[in-house]
């Protein structure tokens, strides 16, 4: 995981500090550093997507499906979170 933005304010573009790819503020990919290393990349159809995430047991849980808008863990996931809370000492409830 890489933080793209911190704090407040306005920016004209977002630059990933890891890959140095540049995104427009709407999430569309504007430029790719060392583009030759990604021959199959379709810049016009590649963008950042918003993913549902939640902090539980001191960890960040991210749902990779952008259609899911709310985190509803099943019983097995709740059990894992509870066990992790016990191991890590995190004060978080699901």
Give a written overview of the molecule.
With 94 residues, the protein is α+β, with helices and mostly antiparallel strands. Helix content is 15%, strand content 18%. It contains one helix and five strands. The strands form two sheets. It has a three-stranded antiparallel β-sheet, with no helix packed on it. The chain has a two-stranded antiparallel ribbon with strand order 4-5. β4 (53-56) and β5 form a beta hairpin.
Entry keywords:
single chain; 94 residues; 3-stranded antiparallel beta sheet; two-stranded antiparallel sheet
What's the average pLDDT?
86
Helix content: 10-25%
Write the H/E string, N to C. EEEEEH
Q: What are the low-pLDDT stretches, counting only 5+ consecutive residues below 50?
A: none
N- and C-termini, Cα separation: 22 Å
Number of beta-strand segments = 5
Structural class determined from secondary elements: alpha+beta
Main sheet?
A: 3 strands, antiparallel
Question: How are strands sequenced across the largest beta sheet?
Answer: 1-2-3
The tally of helices reads 1
